[in-house]
């Protein structure tokens, strides 16, 4: 049960994902106006704007909070801008939630948008020898898919997963994404399609790896009092049960993007709970909920194999049994706990600062019963989890 | 004719004469290791040391995982034309308790690797720049049999 302090998601809105090649601000405006319309509010009502930044769109991207505020028309609202790579949107959620819980605002908008280049994500330009992102590209050619592939290879050799197990994730997510009007790829893939898909980073094929996309998402959150005054009742509202943003604990012994090496466990033993396990654990603690309570989850399927990791990190199954879980159908629509009913990154591609916010939009629609064509039956509790570079773990839990 | 000039692609991460080794850093107080090498604060949150000193790392380790790049990585990688697929391996150094990623020696592909396989540090040319200078990088190469005593 939600407590009195649990904030309310009052409105959500998105711009469809795609490769439109337009200014990211334009997408953000569409999402912001959709969220306002969904909440039955006007822009002047927003007291705090939390922008999720993008490093790929020049200065306006670096200061997204003010960029969107200016584009919508200055109102003198309070503001924050956050960059945490893939977890930027979750940082925005945390910033807005903390501001409201501290009593400095009643209602806030969290917003993020991106325009992405074609092909591999590359570091920002210039020779920056101290930057681990520059180092891994220049010295090793260690692309993001290469890191996903190292992880996938571990699963094959340690757990006995097969490339077909990974493909099953794409098959499942692409099927769900067909019905999602905000998804970029609305095409169902089969296992047969994988044979013709080129290997990018062995053992992963192009179809195993998420694309880079343009897109935007916005969420409006508020105090229960504000929501009650506006709606007359809190009945049926979507509540924020946890926003847990977590760093690793030393030593981080799992090789993670973009680092060339792990920490050393020669002197200090590795923590009992690995990094990604701890991200989920902290959110469960905050919400007073556990994996058995989840109706559905949105996880960061940057690659198909990574989705199987998340099953285990979330406690949906024991370590090493992710492949069995996807094969059982438990994580498909109609299964015990559908994962990525939105279609996931497999159907969206990644629009970095918008993605964690889009996860919240999707969960909100699921909990309201508004996810037409990809609705999880009787959804009561939803979780979204992702991970930004250098150890920005983030996990959000919503419930009815 | 002069010999081609060769320089390390990055300074201070590996020795440039045999026996080739990676150079990490070691805390002068708690003795934990760091790679890539750096100075300044120890990464151990319970250690207040501000002194890390350069430390040669074990030459041999075992493959933790590996992959093979089939597309040319984007800049700042300097890709050969035409691009030839190559392997990367993450290698566990037992004494240091650390996993380090590196390119695998040219010609050794994913099919030649397996998790747990023993490899050792070698060097190879990463790229030749416009001035004809070769930039060298460490690689993981299948370990040669230990010389008998």
Automatic annotation (TrEMBL), chain A:
<dbReference type="InterPro" id="IPR016039">
    <property type="entry name" value="Thiolase-like"/>
</dbReference>
<dbReference type="InterPro" id="IPR055140">
    <property type="entry name" value="Thiolase_C_2"/>
</dbReference>
<dbReference type="GO" id="GO:0016747">
    <property type="term" value="F:acyltransferase activity, transferring groups other than amino-acyl groups"/>
</dbReference>
<dbReference type="Pfam" id="PF22691">
    <property type="entry name" value="Thiolase_C_1"/>
</dbReference>
<dbReference type="InterPro" id="IPR002155">
    <property type="entry name" value="Thiolase"/>
</dbReference>
<feature type="domain" description="Thiolase C-terminal">
    <location>
        <begin position="279"/>
        <end position="397"/>
    </location>
</feature>
<protein>
    <submittedName>
        <fullName>Unannotated protein</fullName>
    </submittedName>
</protein>
UniProtKB/TrEMBL annotation, chain B:
<dbReference type="InterPro" id="IPR052513">
    <property type="entry name" value="Thioester_dehydratase-like"/>
</dbReference>
<dbReference type="InterPro" id="IPR022002">
    <property type="entry name" value="ChsH2_Znr"/>
</dbReference>
<feature type="domain" description="ChsH2 C-terminal OB-fold">
    <location>
        <begin position="56"/>
        <end position="123"/>
    </location>
</feature>
<dbReference type="Pfam" id="PF01796">
    <property type="entry name" value="OB_ChsH2_C"/>
</dbReference>
<dbReference type="Pfam" id="PF12172">
    <property type="entry name" value="zf-ChsH2"/>
</dbReference>
<feature type="domain" description="ChsH2 rubredoxin-like zinc ribbon">
    <location>
        <begin position="20"/>
        <end position="50"/>
    </location>
</feature>
<dbReference type="InterPro" id="IPR002878">
    <property type="entry name" value="ChsH2_C"/>
</dbReference>
<protein>
    <submittedName>
        <fullName>Unannotated protein</fullName>
    </submittedName>
</protein>
<dbReference type="InterPro" id="IPR012340">
    <property type="entry name" value="NA-bd_OB-fold"/>
</dbReference>
